[in-house]
Design goal:
Blueprint (H helix, E strand, L loop, with lengths): L7 E4 L3 E8 L1 H10 L12 E3 L3 H8 L9 E8 H9 L1 E3 L4 H5 L3 E9 L5 E11 L4 H8 E6 L1 H12 L3 H6 L5 E2 L4 H6 L6
Parallel strand pairs: 5-6
Antiparallel strand pairs: 1-2, 1-9, 2-4, 3-7, 4-8, 6-7
Length: 189
């Protein structure tokens, strides 16, 4: 049974994959450079999500204006865990949230067709003070998933959910230090 709050992600012993959706004007230079470069904004919070299906819901399968290019952003586990160690839940005291370098919120995980599930997916907002660290030190690889997103979406629309499911990136529970898990409201942490 899936825990109420649990980080589920594509990860290996050194890295974790997060997903973001951008306009082509941001995605194309980043992909060409192999890292985030302007016009990527180093001056505003960026939200990273380990749940592919949640981002598909948020970007409407890469159809939402300004979110038509989906990138898989592989970052170091060390960076991910540092971000989570600095994180404050968005439901915390407003003064604590205002001063936080990293924000965490839990939103309902999404089914393949977009419906809300009965467990939650983590969204992590990297604040301005850590954006360069995220982009220049933690991020190790950027991959354009847009063609895969379009293919999965077409299968879903065509009533071939089982085929679409097989094309989803793998996600499994991500282990965290117990103290960090408890602070972030993760079940069993």
């Amino acid at each position: 049974m899936t825990a109420l709050r649990e980080i589920r992600a594509d990860h290996d012993e050194r890295t974790i994959v997060l997903y973001q959706a951008y306009a082509p004007a941001v995605a194309e230079p980043a992909l060409a450079a192999g890292r985030f470069v302007p016009p990527f904004s180093f001056h505003r919070m960026t939200w990273i999500k380990p749940s592919f299906r949640w981002l598909m819901h948020r970007s409407n399968w890469a159809q939402k204006p300004g979110q038509t290019r989906v990138l898989a952003v592989r970052i170091t586990r060390e960076g991910w865990e540092e971000a989570l160690a600095r994180a404050v839940l968005t439901t915390a005291d407003p003064a604590e949230v205002a001063g936080a370098e990293v924000h965490v919120q839990w939103d309902p995980e999404r089914a393949l067709r977009g419906g809300a599930l009965n467990h939650y997916s983590i969204q992590v907002g990297i604040g301005r003070s850590l954006i360069r660290t995220f982009a220049e030190e933690w991020a190790t690889e950027l991959t354009d998933l847009t063609p895969q997103v379009h293919r999965i979406a077409a299968l879903v629309r065509g009533g071939r959910a089982a085929q679409a499911q097989r094309l989803l990136p793998p996600e499994r529970p991500y282990p965290l230090p117990a103290a960090t898990a408890r602070r972030l409201g993760i079940s069993g942490g």
